[in-house]
Amino acid sequence: MSDTTSPSASSAAADPTEQEITEQKAVRLAKRQRLLDEAADAAGGAYPVSVPVTHSIREVRDAYGDLAPDESAGVTVGVAGRVVHLRNTGKLCFASLQAGDGTRIQAMVSLAAVGEESLAAWKDLVDLGDHVFVSGEVASSRRGELSIMVSEWRIASKAIQPLPNLHNELNEETRVRSRYLDLIAREQARRNVVTRSTAVASLRATFAARGFLEVETPMLQVMHGGASARPFVTHSNAFDTDLYLRIAPELYLKRAVVGGIDRVFEINRNFRNEGADSTHSPEFAMLEAYESYGDYTSIADLTQTLIQEAALAVSGSHVVTWADGTEYDLGGEWDRISMFESLSQAAGVEITPDTPLEELAALAEREGVEVPHPIHGKYVEELWEHFVKGGLERPTFVMDFPVDTSPLVREHRSIAGVVEKWDLYIRGFELATGYSELVDPVIQRERFVEQAKLAARGDVEAMRLDEEFLRALEFGMPPTGGMGMGIDRLLMALTGLGIRETILFPLVK
């Protein structure tokens, strides 16, 4: 047990009230002013420009963590960290200092080592939440806690607001709205940041090993496209025109393929002016990739590899352990099922691209399935989600979608009325989508015209006719496989968490 398990009076059994916070803030502001008034030079006071750190807390723990109780390392170090526990008792004070990665070490401030004036200043000026620098010999306390026997200390940054009670679980609202407090208080929050960074680095490494180039495409666009979604609209004063925050980078990445960048990808932000729930956020990170002379089967292989390599990087195994302790196997070859065949089996009636719209509407009505824009493909997709989606346990590629809901996808090479598109489902939600890309500019124009008709009938998610993109296609785009995957949803698959936990600073009301 640590010598600092008992918090100071400022860490009560319950979180402080607003009045108590206001009172504590006033006390801390007074301490800040005293520190500023007593500073010997511009680098001193409550916020010095630097402190003489020689080691990180983790480096000290890695080097000397196996010291026996009451054993000294005979080494002097200077470390800094946030005070997360504090106990002031007579001639000996204890503090637990926490680094940004959550690593902690004990600081022991004694009368014998620092003198009466310094000890009194410690007791008077140091609060929970302050960043403090300490220098002294590394030793193990009599209880076996790795410690710094402090010979010198100073405040590195004075905290004006009191920390929440670190012994209590932060509620979800606090975690999301004040992520900085979540990162201080919760190991899972810090681990989420590391996991996300590790996963994204793995994606880039997998692409690099296969000769893909990473590019950046515009986020402000004169015309939105590349997906069926409602855009955010803004206005450019310089150009005196309305612009759209992009809903997808697809149409620009395809321009890059036309220009000869045969293997290209982008990881960046997308924005969709739609609802927010456990799997959707108005602002989200997206990966899109395109491979010349590939198709939707080769891009499915690539997507599986990307995710499995990310799982290995994060957890060392294709079997990932979610935050609730559940294990989920991302290994092996993933299932590939037909949308129409799986829907027919689940519904107990054959459904094909030629099934009359009236039959689909009747089935949807019997099942209580609402279809916002009643076209053939919308009925098929909504019915598939109703009958099939909830039963998917393993990672599954759902193949071959209706043609009228996929305006940027090539028609199937052997099945009439469908396109070569898949959606990947993991944990019951859609993680990624992939296409054999439509590269015929004449057919692409026809598809855009049909989308424009939907828009005219009130479908706010329908695509617009993009003349500049069509002009690029007319210069010749090679056969291409393309895919898109939400980075936030990838983290959901790897961690078992909701989307607001996988985004560091999610948008909230």
What report would you give on this structure?
Helix 6 packs across helix 7 (about 185-210), helix 7 packs across helix 9 (about 295-315) and helix 7 crosses helix 15. The chain has two domains: about 20-155, OB fold (Dihydrolipoamide Acetyltransferase, E2P); about 185-335 and about 395-500, Bira Bifunctional Protein, Domain 2 (BirA Bifunctional Protein, domain 2). The protein is built from 16 helices and 18 strands. About 35% of the residues are buried. It has helices at about 20-40, 55-65, 110-115, 115-125, 170-175, 180-185, 185-210, 250-260, 295-315, 340-345, 355-365, 375-385, 440-455, 465-475, 485-495, 500; strands at about 70-90, 90-100, 105-110, 130-140, 145-155, 215, 220, 230-235, 240-245, 265-270, 285-290, 320, 325-330, 335-340, 395-400, 420-425, 430-435, 480-485. The chain has about 500 residues and is of the alpha+beta class. The strands form four sheets. It has an eight-stranded mixed sheet, with helices on both faces. The protein has a five-stranded mixed barrel with strand order 1-2-3-5-4.
